[in-house]
Amino acid sequence: MKENTGKSKYVMLGMLARMPLTGYTIKKWLENEYSHFWQESYGQIYPTLKALVAQGLAVSSSDGEHGNGRGQIVYSITEEGRKELSDWLYEKPEIEKLRYEILLKISFGENTQPDVLIGHLDDFIIRNEELIRNMSEYMEQMDQFKDQGINCTYSHLTALCGVYVYSAMKDWAEKAKKIISEKGEPS
Question: Coiled-coil intervals in this record (predicted)?
Fold first, then answer.
């Protein structure tokens, strides 16, 4: 389970501020739009949504104005929820914490064979190339929404950050492979 930072409520409110959503749709958006910079435990989605409803920050409906006709519960933000989100957006962000296991393995690399590390770096490069492709495809999908009059500027910016981060990590891994292969010192 991912670390509960207490921010789940704001993730859900931010998503609901865009449009009414089902828990499943929120799960899919988390996988696509946010996975490169934010993880939420899927086990937190429905309890968080229920808590938002209990706090009066969101409402739920299975039919009516926001219903989808399939019996799924659709959640919508309330005015109180919009105020809560707005207040949080004014707060200064917490300092980010970076965790990459590959960096730990490289840091302790003198305790294994260079080929082991190079194998890890090859896998890391492939994974980052795939993530770059995913983010680029997601940005292309957002361009289609623009044609429908939906403003995706801020979502596009977060995806663009993902492209830059994954590109930088890929470049680093290629340089690290070269240094390990040459058994040289970092330059």
Answer: 121-148
Q: What pTM was estimated for this model as a whole?
A: 0.73
For 148-173, letters b (16+ CB in 10 Å) and e give eeeebeebbebbeebbebbeebbebb
The 8-class DSSP code of residue 93 comes to P
| Residue-wise pLDDT tens digits, 122-160 | 999 999 999 999 889 888 888 887 777 778 888 889 889
C-alpha dist (Å) from residue 177 to 69, 134, 184? 54, 24, 11
**92 burial type by CB count under 10 A (0-12 exposed, 13-18 middle, 19+ buried):** exposed
Measured from the Cβ of residue 49, the count of other Cβ atoms closer than 10 Å reads: 23
Contact between residue 18 and residue 58 where contact means Cβ atoms under 8 Å apart: no
Q: How far apart are CA 128 and CA 126, in angstroms?
A: 5
61 φ, ψ to 5°?
-150, 145
